Amino acid sequence: MRKLLLLFCAVLLFMNAHAQTDLPETKLTKAELEAHLRFLASDELQGRRTGEMGLQVAARYIITQWEAQGVQPANDGSYMQAVELQEVTPMTDATFTWNKTDFTQGDNLMMLTGDALDVETKAVFANYGWVDEAADINDYEGLDVEGKIVVTLSGKADDNSPMATFTSIRSKRKWAKERGAVAVIEVFKMSPSFWKRAVGYFSQPRMDIASKEEGAAYGWVLPGDSGIAKALKAGKKKKVSLQTGKAQVTKIASDNLVGIIEGSDPNLKDEYVLLSAHYDHVGTGKNGGGAFTAQDSIFNGARDNGIGTVAVLAAAKAFSQQPPKRSVILLACTAEEIGLLGSRYYAENPLIALEKTVFNLNCDGAGYNDTGAVAVIGLDRVGAKQEILDGAAAFDLEVVGDPAPEQGLFDRSDNASFAAKGVPSPNFAPGMRTFDDSIMKYYHQVGDNPDTIDYDYLHKFCQAYVHTARLIANKDKRPFWATGDKYEAAGKALYGLE
Ligand SMILES: [Zn+2]
To answer: If you measure from the C-alpha of residue 206 to the centroid of ligand 1, how many angstroms do you get, rounded to a whole number?
Structure first.
């Protein structure tokens, strides 16, 4: 009996091991993965900068691989999802005059965007200039702003941090324009030193997703002791004038790449696991941000994010050969380095309804300093810890949870675009124990080139990524955010839970 049981166990073990070695991810070769990386991070691709030919060549390479592997195009017969971007350079001249106080561009006024204006009109105070019908907030209620300048407080009632201010620009311009206002001027409460840095930063050209409808002209004033908000709130001294030059807007064409592999389970295939990696990097020379020389001015981005792109190519191959139960969306994102713009665009314009996307395993990293591990940012937050540990262990890799909490890494890659919509979205990164000098040596540096990569590690890392994705896509119960996570409520809203 005992012997029989042992034999039975041995047979089971053997079957298990056999299944493991049979999976296509175990057959991916180091040579093919190295070839992908050496191409994508080659000097000829000029650092894959968004809007440049190098990135288009990278896109063509990825598409060609997907075609050969039989991946289905996700966008009406095409793998490309056009992401139109714009670079806005603020006007250099502007003056806003209220009650004999001149607010001057770059000094105590920062007009960010809009056409040239020369108006004398009235100002209307509109609290935060906020509109949220679901929350029953409308700061424009009962106000006539037609042809006038709306003066508001920066941010919103429950959050007037600089970040809330920066991220609400587009909405505030739109709400004001819809009501016929010519401009929104926000009274930006901050220290003069912070103001100086903000003005320095926002005077530079900025990239964003091209807006379909233009909003009202927009800017900030540093109020000093002018008392502008208080007086306007009390309905006093409403006469204002505004003269501005025109912000320069340059459109930049770019593409996300999206492919689909249908799942094998008749019930689960309507659910999708999204595998994403940005394929752009920062380009060459002064665009790159780091130090460069005449001999080497190309930011190759082998680690960031050649490795992640190769991991998604590896997934495309393995899953085409043997799909998991759930369907898989492959997404190569553009414009990550200039503000997570490609992923944000996809999250707002998904090619498969986002509520069908049950999980996002993003692959991106600054580099590695432990080739015995992977780092999974969000390991404990997304309801798939066991699959992540098992996926890595299958290729002899440990899993480090967030290695640098002080860096806020979770919200610094494309997974953040999907997390904000409620999709459980960790970032699967190369093995990093701390964000130390050995990382900084390559992170956004010209030295991040293919000759400095450990290809045995690349091989294991990509296999672990694919296998982890398979385990999650095969999981009986779909993963969900940990209780109390900051994205839990967004997840419940997206999936209609509770
Ligand atoms: Zn990156």
So the answer is: 19
- Each residue's pLDDT tens digit, 332-364: 999 999 999 999 999 999 999 999 999 999 999
User: Could you list which residues have their CB under 5 Å from ion ligand 1?
Assistant: 304-305, 364
Residue 46 falls in which region: left (phi positive, over 0), alpha (psi -120 to 50) or beta: left
| CA 366 to ligand 1 centroid distance, Å | 6
Could you tell me whether strands 109-113 and 217-221 are parallel, antiparallel, or unpaired per DSSP bridges?
antiparallel
Half-sphere exposure of 78 (CA within 13 A, CB side): 9
Q: Which tokens belong to 64?
A: 């060609």
Q: How many angstroms is it from 231 CA to the middle of ligand 1?
A: 47
| Domains annotated on the chain, with CATH | 25-84+254-495 (3.40.630.10), 87-251 (3.50.30.30)
Query: Band of the pLDDT at 426, cuts 50, 70, 90?
Result: very high
Please give the Cα distance from 76 to 95 (Å, whole number).
48
DSSP category for residue 490: H
pTM of the model: 0.85
